[in-house]
User: What shape does this take?
Amino acid sequence: ESDFVYIEPGTFLMGSLPDEEDREVDEAIHRVTLTKGFRMSKFEVTQKQWVAVMGTNPSAFRENSLPVEMVSWDDVQAFIQKLSIESGISYRLPTEAQWEYAARAGSTSAYSFGANVNFLAENAWYETNSVMSPYAAGNTGSPRPVGTLKPNAWGLYDMAGNVWEWCQDWGAPYPSGEAVDPTGPANQINKNITRIGRGGSWYVPAAQCRAADRMTHDPAKSTPDLGFRLIHD
Assistant: This one.
């Protein structure tokens, strides 16, 4: 439990401000209120944690302290179900809104620490600083052990970079106007918009590590730069 941080309920601006560099069209700014607090893991789920529950390691880059990757959204749901039964705690993925609220940690800037991309390497493993890794052959880059860089203001590590993180929601355009406890659409709205991933990864440029950046991914597919973290009540 010491690895979880309590995130207070609150209201925040979700999306990116109109003048934010690298802003994308799907980041319309809107006010979101989260009426319930939740506990979020300080770290991405590691390979050691995954193997302890599932018995196998699907990851492309193998090391106990690295984030698990090569896990689909569907795989993650199976892990959560098993872990919840074993532990007696109802774990789940964060909603997209919960994820961004926690990633921002009270900020409205491109990154939780501000807008200056020059500081990103102190906070995130991304395209620029993840290369020449001991885990990869040659100069291809890789994820790194969780929690090795600075946390955000709320004590959460690797919310930018390292691996993309699955969220619970189906992707959809943001609502216009205020939202309270949004969970995304009940069903997939079209075949091109799939489950949400957030935070960027070791493989992508800084722009995709911004707090507002959104990615959607087929829930049945996995990649070597996509993992997750857990929340519970």
Q: What stands out?
A: The first helix runs from residue 47 to 54. Strands lie at 4-7, 10-14, 30-34, 38-41, 164-170, 179-180, 195-198, 214-217, 226-227, 231-232.
